[in-house]
Amino acid sequence: MAPIDFPVSVSSCKCVERLS
Fold first, then answer.
1. Among 9, 11, 5, which Cα is nearest to 19's?
2. Would you report the helix, strand and coil content of the chain in percent, each value rounded to 5?
3. Half-sphere exposure of residue 5, counting CA atoms within 13 Å on the CB side?
């Protein structure tokens, strides 16, 4: 997992969680 892939994945997860 790249260092940029980790933060992006977390950001996406939080975004989706808030939208859901």
1. 11
2. 75, 0, 25
3. 2
Half-sphere exposure (Cβ direction) of 15: Cα atoms closer than 13 Å: 6
Amino acid 8 reads V
**Amino acid occupying residue 2:** A
pLDDT digits (tens, 9 = 90+) for 4-17: 555 666 666 665 56
Tokens at 15, concatenated: 């975004």
Distance separating alpha carbons of residues 20 and 4, to the nearest angstrom = 24
d(C-alpha 20, C-alpha 18), whole Å? 6
